[in-house]
Structure to design on (319 residues):
């Protein structure tokens, strides 16, 4: 019998090589790097690890190759106490990423590769892995499997959080199956064709019947629409060392808040604070701060410049 867990995730894991540079290199140049470190990453895997470090029980489902990077993923998940179901693919390399980090700003550029054989297929999932959890996180890369997991979760009354950044093939079905869709960057405007981000979020919610649609805005925070009102949470000002994985930790934090039963506004505040602190260390997971530290930043932290005023949000909510 499958044991119950608080959170379950179906999606990416990755082995990241973080390369810190004094500045981003120009074309046809040479540069001495500051440091290079291997770290565990991947959207869903990192989100589940964050929840585990905050005291929840977690399960992760994904694929790895038959190489040292896959062994590394296994060890990292075991160290964090995550129940993992990692399918091994023979003769295949695990997902790798080389991440160039600008030392001054902490901003990063990601160079990645993923063998198509690493895609989790729907038939490889077991329904009980999903329905024995209190909340599900998916990231859209293994779209068919993510959609199947999301449908099982919704049928069982389990909330589904989707971390999405691109319109992968089949994404419409996944959006329809996901209750809480928090994307990154310009995804809502690209998906809907609406140039105004607030209108795009409303259109997404209307079209796919989501409980919540939102988009993260980097250091400026997050904006979301629940069908009745807009929520806007400015970002927190920190000394950024490396922005790698900030979005992963944001979504892991939102997943954590769902299990706690928090309202939307508190959950978005917590997620923004967790993401900000994630930027103060190297890699996707080294900056996962304790809950008490995250809540302290929520109470005392300096905020970024507002992107939206209360009046703008109120007007957009009445349109």
């Amino acid at each position: 019998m499958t044991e119950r867990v608080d959170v379950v995730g179906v999606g990416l894991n990755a082995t990241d090589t973080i390369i810190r540079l004094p500045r981003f290199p120009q074309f046809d140049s040479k540069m001495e790097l500051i440091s290079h470190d291997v770290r565990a990453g991947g959207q869903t895997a990192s989100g589940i690890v964050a929840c585990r470090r905050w005291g929840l029980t977690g399960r992760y489902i994904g694929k790895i190759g038959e190489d040292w990077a896959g062994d590394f993923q296994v060890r990292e998940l075991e160290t964090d106490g995550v129940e993992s179901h990692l399918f091994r693919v023979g003769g295949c390399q695990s997902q790798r990423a080389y991440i160039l980090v600008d030392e001054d700003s902490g901003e990063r550029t990601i160079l990645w590769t993923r063998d198509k054989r690493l895609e989790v297929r729907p038939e490889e999932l077991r329904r009980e892995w999903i329905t024995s959890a209190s909340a599900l996180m998916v990231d859209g890369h293994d779209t068919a499997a993510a959609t199947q997991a999301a449908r099982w979760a919704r049928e069982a009354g389990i909330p589904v959080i989707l971390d999405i950044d691109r319109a992968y093939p089949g994404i419409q079905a996944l959006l329809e199956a996901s209750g809480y869709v928090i994307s990154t960057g310009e995804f809502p405007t690209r998906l809907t064709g609406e140039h105004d981000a607030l209108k795009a979020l409303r259109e997404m919610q209307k079209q796919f019947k989501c409980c919540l649609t939102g988009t993260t805005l980097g250091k400026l925070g997050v904006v979301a629409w629940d069908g009745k009102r807009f929520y806007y949470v400015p970002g927190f000002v920190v000394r950024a060392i490396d922005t790698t994985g900030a979005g992963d930790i944001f979504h892991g934090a939102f997943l954590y808040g769902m299990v706690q039963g928090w309202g939307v506004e508190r959950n978005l505040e917590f997620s923004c604070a967790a993401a900000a602190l994630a930027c103060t260390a190297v890699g996707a997971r080294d900056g996962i701060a304790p809950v008490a530290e995250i809540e302290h930043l929520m109470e005392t932290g300096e905020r970024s410049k507002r992107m939206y005023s209360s009046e703008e949000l109120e007007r957009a909510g009445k349109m």
